[in-house]
Specification:
The structure is a single chain. The protein has helices at about 25-40, 55-70, 85-100, 115-130, 140-145, 150-155, 170-180, 195-200, 215-225, 230-245, 250-260, 280-295; strands at about 10, 40-45, 75-80, 105, 135-140, 160-165, 185-190, 205-210. It has about 300 residues and is of the alpha/beta class. It has one domain: TIM Barrel (Alpha-Beta Barrel), CATH 3.20.20. It has an eight-stranded parallel β-sheet with strand order 1-8-7-6-5-4-3-2. Helix 1 (about 25-40) crosses helix 2, helix 9 runs antiparallel to helix 10 and helix 11 crosses helix 12. The chain is globular, with a radius of gyration of 18 Å.
Length: about 300
């Protein structure tokens, strides 16, 4: 079994569909291939950006199996688990383990606002059902459930809960986690527009969105920051920010899929009820991307840092 380090660049990959709504596995793998060549460390499959709510369990597993077959010896393959019932989550984790998935990203219970005790029991029950390493997704902004320091105090006793995707949108939370827990949990930034800031505060990695369309630039920022080449990273990041802001939108899926099309490494099909961007909003997003593409920076040889 591959040992997940929870360190580095982890794209939250989009799910590719054919026009008729079926999975488009070749297009999905084409995009991941571009990202692997750009130097990513792992992928998160079937997350919010992967249109999680529209995917059946078998479809998630099919995507994971295809990625394992093509890239499983090169990068970490992480499957997102976002369920309403504890038993359903345990069953999906069991099936993911059977096909060889390397790790799990785990969201709090969906479709119901649970108490802190219920969230903890959910996380702990799932973790105890498997030997797979787990990254907790802490995103109170979108999911209205915060995994507090007090809750992490209890979760630290569960050995295979290894990491947190930090999406509170509070940069100080990186320092709070470090002050309370040292290196017990790996911390991965989950908000593109705060990534460089959180990396400078000590985050171990970045679960990114716009990396799906701009893999080289995203990996370059990460590696330059970690190498202490801050000014070089900052110049790329400043260019990147207007594009990264497309990640903090209710239409982030459509935004990023349009970006993938415009960079030649994706498709734009989405599953209902989503629709592709239209009208003035489409023109607005296109303009941001066109300006970014026209001024795309020359990157240093970041792969050999």
């Amino acid at each position: 079994m591959r040992q997940v380090e929870w360190t580095g660049m982890y794209p939250a990959v989009t799910t590719k569909f054919k026009e008729n709504g079926e999975l488009d596995i070749p297009a999905f793998l084409k995009n991941i291939d571009f990202q692997v060549k750009a130097g990513i460390d792992g992928v998160v499959i079937g997350g919010s950006l992967g249109e999680s709510s529209t995917l059946a369990h078998m479809e998630r597993l099919d995507l994971a199996k295809a990625t394992l077959d093509s890239f499983g010896d090169q990068i970490d393959i992480i499957l997102n688990v976002a369920e309403g019932a504890t038993q359903n989550a345990i069953e999906l984790v069991r099936k993911a383990s059977e096909i060889g998935v390397h790790g799990i990203m785990l969201l709090p219970p969906m479709m119901y606002k649970p108490t802190d005790d219920e969230v903890l029991e959910y996380f702990i029950s799932i973790a105890k059902s498997t030997s797979l390493p787990i990254m907790i997704y802490n995103n109170p902004f979108d999911y209205k459930i915060e995994v507090t320091l007090e809750m992490f105090e209890q979760l630290k006793e569960i050995e295979n809960i290894k990491a947190v995707k930090e999406s509170t949108r509070d940069i100080s939370n990186v320092t709070r986690m470090r002050n309370h827990f040292g290196d017990r949990f790996k911390i991965l930034c989950g908000v593109d527009t705060l990534a460089m800031e959180e990396l400078l505060m000590g985050a171990d990695g970045w679960v990114a969105g716009l990396v799906d369309a701009f893999p080289a630039e995203t990996v370059a920022v990460y590696r330059l920051v970690k190498a202490g080449r801050i000014e070089e990273a900052l110049q790329i990041y400043r260019w990147f920010l207007p594009i990264l802001e497309l990640d903090i939108s209710p239409q982030l899926v459509q935004n990023i899929k349009l970006a993938e099309v415009m960079t030649g490494i994706g498709t734009e099909h989405v599953r209902a009820p989503r629709k592709v961007l239209q009208g003035d909003e489409r023109l607005r997003v296109q303009a941001i991307l066109e300006k970014g593409l026209a001024t795309r920076p020359q990157l240093p040889d970041y792969l050999n840092i």
